Amino acid sequence: MMIIESTEEDVVEKVLERVEPEGEVVIQAPDGLKGLARELAEEVSRLEDVESVVLDAGRVFGACDVTLSLVSSADTLIHLGHYPVPSVDDALERIGVRTRVYVPTEGPPVEEWMLEELAEVLRYHGFEDVNLCATAQHVPHLARIERYLRERGVEVHVGKGDPERVPVEGLVLGCNVSCVKRDLPTVVVCSGSFHPAGVALTTREPVVQLDPTRGVLDPGDVEEVVRRMLTVRLSKTREAVDLEPEDVEVVGSTALGQVRPDVERALGGVSWRVRYLSEDVLRGVGADACVYCGCPRVPVDEAARFKRWLVLTPAELASAVEGSWDRYVLDSIPSPEHVTEALERWTRG
Ligand code: SF4
Predict the structure, then answer these.
(1) 91 plus 159 within the same structural domain
(2) What is the whole-number distance in angstroms between the Cα of residue 198 and the centre of ligand 1?
(3) Nearest to 64 by CA among 49, 42, 43, 79
(4) 220 and 313 belong to one structural domain
């Protein structure tokens, strides 16, 4: 397995310089990098040892998002945009994908004024000791941010996450915030609101967001996002309180890194599998309520699209059936034991 940290400008050059793709090659990239993936595919297909190149047209939200059908006969996988998920990489090795290359691409730069603003916000709140983490695009900025804050007297912790899921220090995933180790305020470097909200909901400590496309968000801004998210999720969870197992369709994922044997087993197995849960899929499944065992972000982040249905994460369903729906548990992979135990009790009646 090889990780090539790169910018969007030098992805193709770096991959061609450092990798020797062979046989059947599969290239994956999130939507924003599909053009680069095509460019890379054209170059790779000219190499002598390459027999064929297949581009994954799927949406590719992470290195978890690789299906068996896509790679069952592949010799090489080149994944753009994310760090590997170690347990998925191990599975790929076992099924014979000999060359596996992950090319996380660096996001927009963190400007000097953002660092000044970050230090100011921490000073204002009296945060002298903080966790620091980032999403994949922004992990390359962590060392500079850590140095900057340390030089201004802030104690900074960049934690190692769960080795099954998190390959580099300080990387936070939507389904796993295990790199945030201490009960301290956390600085999250990322765009969008899901990851800061996830860290806030998991740690119950203040979160400051540094968004390189917007600037610094105060803990109050993050709390407001969490409050809005909780309003929707708690009301959905409450709706599920009286559901019986026969009222709920269990939908699993086909993505190797989103198959969750623990919750699937606790729920008595999945009835359906799908790569992307969508309105069309829910219409086809024909159930009003479903528990989605794939990426935990989907029911939460896509809630607006699923208004007509009750789509819950396993952790939400567990809270509902245990009657503890007012204490929200953000779903994660791997699932906490109390979630699988609650689901098992419910399924067995
Ligand atoms: S399961 Fe979802 S949150 Fe976790 S790595 Fe995959 S896409 Fe990201």
Answers:
(1) no
(2) 12
(3) 79
(4) no
Query: Which residue numbers in the chain have pLDDT < 70?
Result: none
Atom 5 of ligand 1: nearest residue by CA position:
62
**Where is 251: in which H helix or E strand?**
strand 248-253
Is the alpha carbon torsion for 88, 89, 90, 96 positive or negative? positive
| CATH number, domain containing residue 81 | 3.40.50.11840
Model pTM? 0.94
Contacts of 101 (CB under 8 A, 6+ apart): 1, 2, 3, 4, 15, 19, 76, 77, 78, 79
**What's the rounded Cα separation, in Å, for the pair 163 and 167?**
6
Interval between CA 2 and ligand 1 midpoint (Å)? 20
Domain boundary among 80, 103, 126: 103
Residues whose beta carbon lies within 6 Å of some atom of ligand 1: 61-62, 64-65, 173-175, 257-258, 295, 297, 333
Q: What is the pLDDT of residue 325?
A: 72
What is the maximal distance between C-alpha atoms in the chain?
Answer: 61
63 within a domain of the structure (yes/no): yes
Task: From 203, 228, 253, give the residue that closes a domain.
Answer: 228
Q: What is the model's pLDDT at position 324?
A: 84
Nearest of 260, 342, 257 to residue 79 by alpha carbon: 257
β-pair type (2-3, 99-103): parallel
DSSP strand E in 111-150: where?
129-134
Residue nearest to atom 1 of ligand 1 (CA): 295
Ligand 1 mean position, distance from CA 218 (Å):
26
In a domain, 234, yes or no: no
In this structure, is residue 235 part of a structural domain? no
Other CB atoms closer than 10 Å to residue 46's CB: what's the count?
A: 9
pLDDT score recorded for residue 349: 86
Q: Mark residue 286 as left, alpha or beta (left: phi above 0; alpha: psi -120 to 50; beta: remaining).
A: left
What CATH number does residue 315 fall under?
3.40.50.11860
CA-nearest of 81, 3, 70 to 40 is: 81
Domain of 95 in residue numbering reads as 2-103
